[in-house]
Amino acid sequence: MANDQVFTFHNGVAVPNIGFGTWQIPNEEAYGAVTIALKTGYTHIDTALAYKNEENVGKAIKDFDISRENVFITSKLPAQTKGYEATLAAFEETVSNLDVDFLDLYLIHAPWPWDDIGKDCTEGNIESWKAMEKLYKEGKIRAIGVSNFAESDIQALMDACEIVPMANQIPFYVGRVQKSLLAFCAKHNMVVEAYSPLATGQILDSPKLKKMATKYDVTPAQLCIRYCLEKNTLPLPKSTNEERILENSQLDFTISPEDVQILDAFEDIRAK
């Protein structure tokens, strides 16, 4: 795994260019999965309070032979948690669960609660962001960002707060490229992190994708993850299978510009 390759946030903090995602990994499986990921060479682990697995994610990192400074840990403020004091309390819960003194990256998980998508929570997001700015200035978080935020959600923070988000973690994969949002993030020097880079597995059976993967002598999953890097996004593949965890990090190839264009033109699988 090429951990010498990094993305750099606009504050100068570097993050390994592939992360190990733990969404949908139950707490009882998280210890083993994260241990395998670390053994395989991942040094960037992504979790969230909402995943309910922070405890075993943190325990796996602590038990593994790696110093805290050499592993990049991301967690997230729950989507329904809005407000200054509520954010400070949620952060303390997360660092307690993980048993760490600081986070490398902390994100607002979504601009609205998952059970009320689209609700206007601008005021709450601003107050949460101000709390995160405080934690950042105190050195408790090395970088702060958002997740699932559209351009207007990010703009609202920039209009009311001091610090431009350093990252936006969004669903990004072959067939869902979010061109406008990517351009907006690039304009403001925000790293885009690509969660569900395999479209939760839905795209891997595509005959066109399989044919292209064969051309590069890689798996469809490797092609999809490499595509994220070709689009200057940071992929967060997830698996609990040791062979796939290793495979997902072996991306020592490049996709030709012509083939990137073909992948750009894939139909969004959500429309099917």
UniProtKB/TrEMBL annotation:
Residues annotated as domain NADP-dependent oxidoreductase: 18-266
Q: Which PROSITE patterns does the record associate with it?
A: ALDOKETO_REDUCTASE_2, ALDOKETO_REDUCTASE_3
| Key words, A-Z | NADP, Oxidoreductase
Q: Which InterPro entries match?
A: AKR (IPR020471), Aldo/ket_reductase_CS (IPR018170), NAD(P)_OxRdtase_dom_sf (IPR036812), NADP_OxRdtase_dom (IPR023210)
Keyword Endoplasmic reticulum present in the record's keywords: the answer is no
The family database entries (PANTHER family) matched by this protein are listed as: 2,5-DIKETO-D-GLUCONIC ACID REDUCTASE, NADP-DEPENDENT OXIDOREDUCTASE DOMAIN-CONTAINING PROTEIN
Q: Which family does it belong to?
A: Belongs to the aldo/keto reductase family.
Q: What is this protein's name?
A: 2,5-diketo-D-gluconic acid reductase
**Organism, as annotated:** Planococcus kocurii
